Structure to design on (194 residues):
């Protein structure tokens, strides 16, 4: 059986992740797909190209959020810095877009920040689950006491848009509190990320 020659960007990113996770192993499936195995868990990494076949996108599926628990999201954000001696690889990594669990890295950071911000504002906020993810936007369900609501976050190039969808049955005073908190979080996110 011949050895699989993987794309350099994919191979580099997979090696960085593998080296950061103790006792992990890599299964190279094809030139564009690798699976990093960590015990019974796995991280699926796939490289695709844009229409010009020059700019890569790396799609990572990490259902157990190993990258997050191992603090590897920051490493992936600065992945080009890990290719110190290879100028061509560094340039390719700088142009590469990394998508983790259907969100861009920055949007994944924003999701984590939204969760933390609601936790800091009040113990009454309870994160439900992420209901939709689409690279630069996500929706999530929340509860404020017994009152359910959804938030949608869109990570535009110039600003982050945060919107709450609150059930009409929610009392006006509670609705006003949630809206004010969502506005406060939106402003904080834009100050941090834009």
């Amino acid at each position: 059986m011949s050895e699989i020659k993987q794309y350099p960007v994919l191979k580099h990113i997979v090696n960085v992740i593998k080296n950061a996770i103790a006792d992990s192993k890599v299964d190279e499936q094809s030139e564009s797909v690798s699976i990093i195995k960590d015990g019974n868990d796995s991280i699926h990494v796939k490289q695709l190209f844009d229409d010009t076949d020059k700019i890569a996108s790396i799609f990572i599926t990490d259902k157990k959020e190993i990258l997050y628990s191992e603090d590897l999201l920051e490493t992936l954000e600065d992945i080009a810095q890990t290719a110190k001696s290879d100028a061509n690889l560094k340039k390719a990594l700088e142009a590469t877009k990394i998508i983790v669990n259907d969100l861009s890295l920055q949007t994944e950071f924003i999701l984590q920040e939204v969760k933390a911000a609601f936790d800091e504002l009040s113990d009454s906020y309870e994160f439900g689950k992420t209901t939709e993810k689409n690279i630069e936007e996500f929706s999530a369900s929340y509860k404020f006491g017994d009152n359910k609501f959804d938030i949608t976050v869109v990570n535009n190039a110039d600003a982050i848009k945060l919107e709450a969808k609150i059930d009409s049955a929610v009392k006006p005073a509670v609705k006003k509190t949630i809206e004010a908190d969502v506005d406060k979080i939106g402003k904080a996110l834009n100050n941090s990320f834009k």
User: Anything to note?
Assistant: The mean pLDDT is 93.
